[in-house]
Amino acid sequence: MPSSSAEARPLADLLSLRGRTALVVGGAGLLGGEISAAFAELGAELVIASRDASKCAAYGEKLAAEFPGTKTHALAVDITEPDSIRAMVTETEKRVGSLDILVNSGWSGRKNTFESISDADWDLDIEVCLSGVFRTVKAAFPLLRERRGNILTIASMYGHVAPDYRLYDGAKLANPPSYGAAKAGVIQLTRYLASFLSPHGIRANAISPGPFPFESTQRENPEFIARLAAKNPLNRIGRPYELKGAAVLLCTDAGSYINGQNLCVDGGWAVW
After folding, report:
1. 1 lies in a domain?
2. Does the N-terminal or the C-terminal CB of the chain have fewer CB atoms within 10 Å?
3. Within 201-243, where are the H helices?
4. CA dist., res. 110 & res. 112, Å (int)
């Protein structure tokens, strides 16, 4: 049925995060930092968490200066340790009282080829990229349920397409098989969460970024960056701020009917 005029809401209202709280794991990193900034600009109170609490605190101060009135909190978390995850969620509740948005953007791993990857390397990537996401959602579920909140997880283009081996020159820049396997798991976990958490009013979505290499990688490996750019229909790599619009859509009321989706922000990488 068409919505009545009484149900209509202006776009500015749909995009507002005033009065909302967000926990962004990895929220001071390359892509998570852009998501934190977008939420701060829209009025959310932020908990920024990673292994490096001092980095999170410094970034929170930067956001508070850029967006006056923004409240930020910094927490340390190791998403490979269940006790650390639970402590983060408990402290989040103490500091902000509730939770509307959970963003899983934490990542650390090792560069490997199929030949070089060890069992320990594989286990680490699965633990960080997939198991850590599951445990964080599990721990935050009671808070999200109270607020009919939503979950956003950062997946990857390599969760649904394979890396082109011709782009990579040795182990230094290689994309390990564990990374893509974990990110594929994240995409499917997102669909599962969208189904089974929907009775609680909780939405779950994922974003699959395309090539967003670190600035250091760009400076040190210009030929590799040129190969990445040439592979992409837009003939360039991504700029981290280009993730902000997708995150805002999925985490505000502007996307309140979007659930269980994997939104590709990849410049068209996967279309050919």
Report:
1. no
2. N
3. 215-220, 222-231
4. 6
Query: Does the global pTM surpass 0.85?
Result: yes
Domain annotation covers residue 34: yes
C-alpha–C-alpha distance, residues 168 and 224, integer Å: 7
Per the domain annotation, does 9 fall within a domain?
Answer: no
The whole-angstrom separation of Cα 262 and Cα 42 is 23
Q: Is residue 74 part of a domain?
A: yes
Neighbour order of strands in the sheet with 262-265: 72-76, 45-50, 21-25, 101-104, 150-154, 203-209, 262-265
What pLDDT shows up at residue 7? 78
According to the model, what pLDDT value does residue 109 have?
Answer: 72
Question: How much is the average pLDDT of 114-120?
Answer: 93
Q: Which two tokens stand for residue 245?
A: 């619009």
Question: Distance (Å, rounded) from C-alpha 87 to C-alpha 108?
Answer: 20
How many domains does the structure of the chain reveal?
A: 1
Specify the 3-state DSSP secondary structure of 160: coil
Q: Which letter, b or e, does each residue of 156-170 get, where b requires 16 or more Cβ atoms within 10 Å of its Cβ?
A: bbbbbbeeeeeebee
Name the residue range of residue 89's domain: 17-271
**Of 43, 45, 24, 44, nearest in space to 35 by CA:** 24
User: Residue-wise over 111-125: b if at least 16 C-beta within 10 A, else e?
Assistant: bbeeeebeeebbebb
Tens digit of each residue's pLDDT (9 = 90 or more) over 126-175: 999 999 999 999 999 999 999 999 999 999 999 999 999 999 877 778 89
75: left (phi over 0), alpha (psi -120 to 50) or beta: beta
